[in-house]
Amino acid sequence: MTNLIDIRDVRHAYRTEAGTLPVLDGLNVSVPEGGFVAVVGPSGCGKSTLTKLVAGLLKPDHGEVWLHGEKVKSPRSTVGMAFQNPVMLEWRTILQNVMLPLEIVPNKLTKAQKQDRARYLLELVGLKGFEDKRPSELSGGMRQRASLCRALVHKPEVLILDEPFGALDAFTREDLWQIMHQVKEREPFTGVLITHDLRESIFLADKVVVLSGRPARTQYVLDVPDTGPRSLDHLYTSEAAEMLAILRHQIEVAQGRAPAEAEPETRIAPPPGSAAQGMH
């Protein structure tokens, strides 16, 4: 399968008044076309920096970022992004907020086609009937659904989700996890999810990349098999529990609270009947 995203030996540092702050050091991440990768790691290890590099908002100090066979050198209109804080323009309706990328990204759609596209996505995430509401009239979870629609409205090749569900209550968050699966089935995309929630990572992604402490490198990669439709019941299986235990241990290693493995990068390839076989 062809990799749509390739991050190759990327190093990056920020220049501050106190000096240089290395953030990424030899980072390697690949995402196949249609794949969904979750990135987890200690706070401040460079997860959000990774998303900016993929979107072309930052240039690495060393190494390369490739997107669909092209080296990323500038912002890419083929990348959609949704963040923890779904910033909406209060003077625009929800429908108008969702349509905003279609006013920025070059396209040949008529105004009616743009509206139809936005309405279709809003219906897909359960917001039919709220098109003419203002952002302040919607709950946090509803605004996040609208933010997801806005990120997808121009049919991006890559969807980057930077902790989009982190500020929501547990019930709303789990509801949106299930909606994400429905959306990906109807609106295929290659996804990169930044999250601190390990349950979220194995529920949504087909691969989980654990970053080391800063400056971050690729410490561990966990494959989550059978990436078909999932229900929340899968999070309570013994297979899911084993995957979560593996990831928690790797986070402890990244935080320096557990000894590092002899092999810094390990990929889970579970034998039949072992961990991760139940996630389908």
What does this structure look like?
The chain is α/β, with parallel strands linked by helices and 280 residues long. It has 2 domains: 1-78 and 157-280, Rossmann fold; 86-156, no CATH class. It has helices at 47-55, 94-104, 111-124, 140-152, 170-186, 198-204, 238-254, and strands at residues 3-16, 19-32, 36-40, 62-67, 70-71, 79-83, 158-162, 190-194, 207-211, 218-223. Strands 6-7-8-3-9-10 form a 6-stranded mixed beta sheet, with helices on both faces. A 4-stranded antiparallel beta sheet has the order 2-1-4-5. Strand 4 (62-67) and strand 5 form a beta hairpin. The longest helix has 17 residues, at 170-186. The chain is globular and about 55 Å long. The relative contact order is 0.16.
Count every helix, treating DSSP H or I runs of 4 or more residues as helices: 7
- Based on secondary structure, the structural category is alpha/beta
What is the CATH homology-level superfamily of the largest domain? P-loop containing nucleotide triphosphate hydrolases
Count the domains: 2
CATH class of the largest domain: Alpha Beta
Shape: globular
What is the end-to-end distance? 20 Å
Name a few traits of the molecule.
6-stranded mixed sheet; disordered C terminus; 7 helices; single chain; alpha/beta
List the topology elements.
Layout: E1 3-16, E2 19-32, E3 36-40, H1 47-55, E4 62-67, E5 70-71, E6 79-83, H2 94-104, H3 111-124, H4 140-152, E7 158-162, H5 170-186, E8 190-194, H6 198-204, E9 207-211, E10 218-223, H7 238-254
Parallel strand pairs: 3-8, 3-9, 6-7, 7-8
Antiparallel strand pairs: 1-2, 1-4, 4-5, 9-10
